[in-house]
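Project standup — Tuesday

K.O.: blocked on the structure for the chain from last sprint. Re-posting the sequence here as requested.
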Amino acid sequence: MSRTIVITGATRGLGRNLVDRFVESGQTVVGCGRSESAVAELREQYGSPHAFAAVDVTDDASVQQWCQSVLDSHGPPDLLINNAAIINRSAPLWEITVDEFSQIVNINIVGVANVLRGFVPRMNQRGEGVIVNLSSGWGRSTSPEVAPYCATKFAIEGLTKALAQELPSGLAAIPLNPGIIDTDMLRSAFGSAAGSYPNAEQWSRTAAPFLLELGPRDNGESLTVPH
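H.V.: unblocked you, prediction finished:
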C-alpha cells in the first residue's frame, strides 16, 4: 500500500536520498527545500503524484500555505519527516554571533514547530500517522565548537517527547538520530575524517525501510537508525 510521506529539507543530503528510496518503494513523496533550482530538479525527476515546493521553514505564513496546499492535494501525511536543519560553523560558543545563533535556532527548532503546527491537527483528526523529527548524536551528547547545534537537537529531543505525550492513540512522535553519515554538514565539523563514514545514499538504503516500519508502539522513543 502506497503511503504519503512529507519530508522537509528534501533537496539535499539525507532528505534527497530518502526521496529516492521512498519513490523507488512505491510511496507518494511530498517535499520542500529552500533552493528553487533544487526543487525544480526534483519536480523534473519525479512528477505527479509526487510534489515539491520551495519553502523557507522559518517563515510561518509560507509554511502554513504550503501545508494547506499539501493537505488539499494529498491529505494528511502517513509519515511526516522534519529533516530541514543546519549546523553552525565550528567555533566556541562565544564566537558565534547573535545572527548565526538565531538562524540555527529558527531553522532547527522554530521551523520544525511551524511544520508541526501545519500538519498535526489534521493527522490528529484522522487518528493515525507517524511524525519523525530528526535529532542527532549531538542531541544526546555534546562536543566542543558545536554548542548551538547541540542546543537545537537537545531541544528537538525534548519537544518531540513532549509532543508524544499530547498525541491521541494511533499516532507517534519520534526523535530520530540518523547516525553518523558523510554529508556536507558532517564535513563542516569533521573535515576529511567524515569520509570514513557511510554516505547519504548508503545510509538511505537502511534508513528508508526502517522509517516505514515505525508506528504507534514507538511513540516517544528516542531511536537511532541501525547501521
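K.O.: great, moving the ticket to review. Helices lie at 13-24, 36-45, 60-74, 98-126, 147-166, 184-190, 200-212. The longest strand covers residues 171-177.
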